[in-house]
Amino acid sequence: MKMLLYLLFFLGGLYSLICYLLYFFQEHLIFFPQKLAIDHTFNFDGDFEEKYFHVDEETTIHALYFFAQNPKGVILYFHGNAGSLEDWGGVADGFVKLNYDVLISDFRGFGKSTGKISELGLYQDAQMLYDVLLENIDASKITVLGRSLGTGVAVDLVSKNKVKRLILETPFSSFADLAQSRFKIIPVKVLLKYSFPNKDKLKKVNCPVHILHGTNDQVIPYSHARKLKSDLKSGWTFTNIKSGNHNNLSLFQEYWNRIESILK
Fold first, then answer.
1. CATH fold of the domain at 45-263
2. Triad 67, 80, 48: Cα angle to 5°
3. Rounded to two decimals, what is the model's pTM?
4. Domain residue spans of the chain
């Protein structure tokens, strides 16, 4: 009996320790930023320039603006939870070839961006970037594209503002649901500081929404896309890329055929 009590105390302590670590160190489990030196030089093809947006004394958002020759509009792009613009800047090329400018930024703490990351902070930074675009571009010319974790930022922004369209690549229905599925015996939804409730916020979106998801996605399962698909409104589209995984949709011609169709 005594050994059983010891075992129960040990397991209870271990469970509490896991919950403690998940709560206080969750940013390290969610975000995997690559830091870049302030003098880092980018070597992307085409015409682009670096931009810095001062948020507050601790936070500066670094972005790249890629120019198309005869732009039909601009794509405000929110990337995934790892890397930096050194990795992500290359995604702009395909959209520039379709005659769209692209503004893509690094999250706080990624690349050359500074500041402490938080869900609210990510929303505020996205709103700032949108407001900057509005200074020279009409809302009817702005397309917002979110990929992976960036879909949570994109959906929140579009739920509060007017844009031409919203494109979601490998989205989750809710980040809290995704995290809970990874840690089934832990009360993740109670401990998690990041919810990104895409499914709920999409109900407030009034522009066309286009969802693209790979059927073999092992990071954000295809089932999340199906949950979002169930709420599609008239004019919204859903495209499944057969055999596509989380990181290779842009390698499929079907992906670019769909993107080109959406942007026409």
1. Rossmann fold (3.40.50)
2. 15
3. 0.93
4. 45-263
Distance CA 159, CA 108 (A): 22
Name the burial class of residue 160, with classes exposed (0-12), middle (13-18) and buried (19+) by CB atoms within 10 angstroms of its CB: middle
Is 122:61 a contact under the CB 8 Å cutoff?
no
Record the tokens describing residue 26, joined without a space.
């969750």
Q: Per-residue pLDDT tens for 230-260?
A: 888 888 999 999 999 999 999 999 999 999 9
